């Protein structure tokens, strides 16, 4: 499958774009960004300098992925999601001079394999979203999210577990959870969740 880049997209000449990836209208991909194979970068999305995006990721329309974010393979970023990079944002220094690149230290959001972040959510860096986790639309993530966790709200908190299919898991008792779509079972271990038999 061929790589497709819209004529209206702004893709830096030294960004790396993998085979089969589509970058749609008005998207911007900055210098040094690395985008894997078979990704979709939606209309008006922003991918910051040096951002790393694994194979098979989908970044929906108008999402903002600021450096130094890292997205592992199979990540879904919903429409208008923001991954921040400044813990203490200011436009100017205390003396009134404009802030420059040397006046702050960028911190990133890491999104692990298969995780999904719902529309209009904000992930406040530094934070890690665990493997196959699901952040509900409109949430504000201010702390790390465990693997397979379902989180929602402002600030986001865990309200359940999801499986690899993305559906909320059914409590089978004794710390065992089951996916209603695939019948894959999971076990709670030390406050986290692990697939059984993998």
Describe this structure in words.
- The chain is mainly beta.
- The chain has a single domain, classed as UDP N-Acetylglucosamine Acyltransferase, domain 1 (3 Solenoid), CATH 2.160.10.
- 0% of the residues lie in helices and 34% in strands.
- It is built from no helices and 26 strands.
- The strands form four sheets. Strands 1-4-7-10-13-16-19-21-22 form a nine-stranded mixed sheet, with no helix packed on it.
- The chain is globular, with a radius of gyration of 18 Å.
Key features of this structure:
198 residues, mainly beta, UDP N-Acetylglucosamine Acyltransferase, domain 1, nine-stranded mixed sheet, seven-stranded parallel sheet, globular
Largest β-sheet summary: 9 strands, mixed
Along the chain, the helix and strand elements come as EEEEEEEEEEEEEEEEEEEEEEEEEE
State the total count of DSSP E strands. Answer: 26
CATH topology: UDP N-Acetylglucosamine Acyltransferase, domain 1
Computed Rg: 18 Å
Number of helices: 0
Q: What assembly state would you assign to the polypeptide chains in this entry?
A: single chain
On the 0-100 scale, what is the average pLDDT?
96
Largest sheet, spatial ordering of strands: 1-4-7-10-13-16-19-21-22
CATH architecture: 3 Solenoid
Helix content: under 10%
